[in-house]
Amino acid sequence: MVEALWGRIGMMVVYAVFAPFIGGLLDGMDRKISARMQGRRGPGILQPFYDVMKLSKKQLLSVNKFQLLMVMSYLFFVMLSGALFFGGCDMLLCFFSLSTAAMFLILASTSTHSPFSTIGSHREMVQMMSYEPMVLLTAVGFYLATGTFRVMDVIKTDIPAIAYAPGFFVGFAFVLTIKFRKSPFDLSTTHHAHQEVVKGVTTEMVGIEYATTTVAEWYENVFLLGVVGLFFVTSNPWSYLVAVLAVLVVYFIEILIDNTSARVKWQLMLKLAWGVTLVTGGLNLFILELI
Fold it and tell me: Where are the domains of the chain?
């Protein structure tokens, strides 16, 4: 019992230490692959780390101290979500913590009273309305497939969750486009500076604030991709290799969608997200209830 506890704590520490490096490398790969898709050479894979280092050295010119507190709270709850997940805790608790983190990001944005940030905050809330039902259904899908919400018990099963919950997997992969802030659903903010609301929720964030938000996104991306991998993990050690391959394929597809899609209006995003949730998640839920 004690050894298992220390093992879970160790996984939490590993996530807290290495997740930003993995997230930064994924971000660098994203930029490189996107550039090649657009016929450009693109920046180096390590460029995201240089950007964060440069931002951290800039002078902090915040509108108010409340914004910095909210940004730090956003980072804390994102880290908590991932730490709980990789520590094998309850999946519902992980998702609720992630939702709390999103609310702190919205508070940080609205605290500046900037019209661009306000528009971005409103769109961020619409995005939450779009993806939250599918995110919560994903946790339900794991429970129906494995009989538990606890991550540490899910990975001990003999049959991967994807065998019972393919619809939940497809639905979760769909809303990842919203969570990763990729086109066509990058309404509240984007990784590109040329959208119509400037940078949305991060418009008024500079220096250490923007660097913190970027690192928080890296933590969040690793956590979300971890959920993708959980669909394939079983008690068989080889399943972890399958999970990694699945994560890389899903991430590549997200990059491909980002570079081949134009931004849509929030009404269409809401309809598509809820439609996919109802069809994939709802149908899979109905089938599992009948079994």
Answer: 2-290
